[in-house]
Amino acid sequence: MKFPGKKIWITGASSGIGKAVALELSKQKTQLILSARNKQQLEEVASECINNGSTAAVVPFDLEIEESVVEAAQYVLSVIGPPEALYHFGGISQRSYAAETPLEIDRKIFEINFFGTIALTKAILPAMIQNGGGHIAVTSSVVGKFGIPLRSAYSASKHALHGFFESLRAENKKNNIRVSVIIPGRIKTNISVNALERDGSKHGVMDEGQKKGKTAEATAEIICRKLKKEQKEILTGGSEIVMVYIRKYIPFLYYYLAPKVKPL
What we know:
Blueprint: E1 7-11, H1 16-26, E2 31-35, H2 39-51, E3 55-58, H3 66-80, E4 85-88, H4 103-130, E5 134-139, H5 152-171, E6 177-184, E7 187-188, H6 208-211, E8 214-215, H7 216-228, E9 233-236, H8 242-249, H9 251-257
Parallel strand pairs: 1-2, 1-4, 2-3, 4-5, 5-6, 6-9, 7-8
Helix pairs in contact: 1-2, 1-7, 3-4, 4-5, 8-9
């Protein structure tokens, strides 16, 4: 992927990793499409991107509402034109035990993290294929590779993204659709602040582990470097990413450690 001049749609672009990736890519004279729910924050990010030498269109929508996703996709395809890359960073986390979490909260997390993300992908994919291909990246998590306490629905939604997008990659190799799965560990963003408690309220605080995480800016540099290479899996974070390898290569150790993990 050669970024200069490319039309790139970034979701979750109002804050966190999504915003940092947008700003990083804006240094390469890209044509950015920025989406999230908060229009004002998106416009602020767009202004920074334009100052960096790129163009930036603001297209707000809500991942939880299918109609909102479809309308945004239709607008982009008809007014701006099909993107050559679609990078998903929108999502929500969780801070509650499975036994105490109502099914409606599980569904809400899946609507945002999984169904909203694949709805946008499905809406854009035919145009991408018709244009000769494209690059799609989706943001999972280290807990998309294993489960830990207080993340049951969040972890499940990220596992689901792996399955969907790996299948999508295999199905569309012939169509020149390249897929990257981004797997962050603890990154210093507001993801824990906005995470859902069992009653659907916001967690409201930045977890200690989050405070000590890699900055979104440093993470974005790594992600963009690997997106340029269209790396199939992009793992980034601190020492916590070691658990990915423990789960894969020493599963008995993972089973011993997982109940002891202090995820906050």
